Amino acid sequence: KDVDVAVMVGGYPRKAGEERKDVMAKNVSIYQQQASALEANASKDVKVVVVANPANTNALILAENAPSIPRENITCLTRLDHNRALGQVAERTGSHVGIVKNVIIWGNHSSTQYPDVNHGTVGGKPIRSAVNDDTWLNGDFITTVQQRGAAIIKARGLSSALSAANAVCNHVRDWVRGTPGGSWTSMGVVSDGSYGVQRGLVYSYPVTCAGGKWKVVQGLPIDGPSRERLRVTEAELVEERDLALQCLAEKK
């Protein structure tokens, strides 16, 4: 009752041999119920962070079923991916992670996400110059961040729960207290059409936060290869959304 921040960690994960539609149908049911509970009980300006996968589309289902909660107050977690990208660059350059800034996670919290270093810096120096290895940045860096969750499960037999919890704290703190001057973070938010992404999708963007509000960083130049990666992850989110809406329609 009267909750100000809701962190949604409950969901139904896909298991071996299961069809995507079956998994989506289960998550649609879960997030319809969660939406109803929040509508009925939460503070009217509740801030929601969806963590359970498929995080972006679970957030979209929640938003669809909780019309009284402002759309901008429903987000999903891509800060874990953002932190992993910072960590990879720090390790590669032998730098403290605190001086790596302004990487971006675009799109879906899935293996189609695009970890983008083109606007980031290490100690004020462009990441591409500091790393000085475009082959790595355009290849292994991207796939390592995209597939880090699976690699951790394979290595320890369990998910990266502590890293995810830490990322939730980072996400909420920046949202409530504001991002540091001159830097942004990555959050899955309801698209307003920025960077040509379909309106209404829950899509990870670079954002700055102040006064408890987030704002998409505008005007960043996007090169051809990056634009194609943004389109690929958007297409996956459209497919997920359509599947979720089909499951919703079948339940009615």
From TrEMBL:
It catalyses: (S)-malate + NAD(+) = oxaloacetate + NADH + H(+). Residues 78-242 form the Lactate/malate dehydrogenase C-terminal domain. InterPro entries: Lactate/malate_DH_C, Lactate/malate_DH_N, Lactate_DH/Glyco_Ohase_4_C, Malate_DH_AS, Malate_DH_type2, NAD(P)-bd_dom_sf. PROSITE patterns: MDH (PS00068). One of its GO terms (molecular function) is L-malate dehydrogenase (NAD+) activity. Keywords: NAD, Oxidoreductase, Tricarboxylic acid cycle. Gene3D superfamilies: Lactate dehydrogenase/glycoside hydrolase, family 4, C-terminal, NAD(P)-binding Rossmann-like Domain. Belongs to the LDH/MDH superfamily. MDH type 2 family. This is Malate dehydrogenase. It comes from Chlamydomonas reinhardtii.
